[in-house]
Amino acid sequence: MAAALAKLELEGFDELNKTFNALDEKLKKKPLRKALRAGAKVFQVRIKQNASAYDDSGRNAKFIKVKSLKRSRTSIGAMVTTGTRDQLQIPRLKKAGYYPFTLEYGAHRKGIKATRYMSRAFTSENQKAIRVIAMTLGKEIENLFR
Fold first, then answer.
1. Contact call for residues 120 and 50 (beta carbons, < 8 A)
2. In angstroms, rounded to a whole number, what is the distance separating the alpha carbons of residues 67 and 30?
3. Backbone φ/ψ region at 58: left (φ over 0), alpha (ψ -120 to 50), beta
4. Cα–Cα distance between 12 and 141 in angstroms, integer?
């Protein structure tokens, strides 16, 4: 299946990009990390809403968090994670499945259909997240020059 490409035009993006590229590498990381976390929070909100629709206990949605990727010289990022087995109170048995995984992808042997609660959130909110990242990055770069 081919990935759908999206086009987004932001006013002032060229100027923002030039300013950002002119910054020192160390100065780039802090505003970029904040912007990526802000974008990930957009996904987090939608994922929590989608998870709540399929989980009566609300436990899965409660532990959906945004985390920054491990600090590195070469990469910066943020990710949306689900709770651990301990947080979700899933027993550590061989036959005990991982509930968020089963919700997302289903369990064909057991007749559980995939809900794609995370995939649908990423698809529906990607344009909004890109706008939030660009706006936050612009604000953070302005703050650097104050």
1. yes
2. 15
3. left
4. 13
The C-alpha angle with vertex 38 and arms to 36 and 39, in degrees rounded to 5, equals 65
Distance CA 43, CA 102 (A): 20
CA-angle at 66, arms to 114 and 41, nearest 5°:
85
Number of alpha helices (DSSP H) and beta strands (DSSP E) in the chain: 5, 2
- Specify whether the CB–CB gap between 67 and 78 falls below 8 A: yes
CA 25, CA 137: separation in Å to the nearest integer?
A: 15
Higher-confidence position of 38 and 60: 38
Which residues are within 8 A (CB) of 40 and not within 5 positions of it... i.e. 6 or more apart? 66, 78, 79, 80, 129
Please report, in angstroms and rounded to a whole number, the separation of the first and last CA atoms in the chain. 47
Taking only the tens place, the pLDDT of each residue in 46-97 is 999 988 887 767 778 888 999 888 887 777 889 898 877 777 777 776 666 6
Facing residues of 79 across strands? Answer: 67
Q: Is the dihedral of CA 53, 58, 63, 66 positive or negative?
A: positive
Pair type for strands 65-68 and 78-81: antiparallel
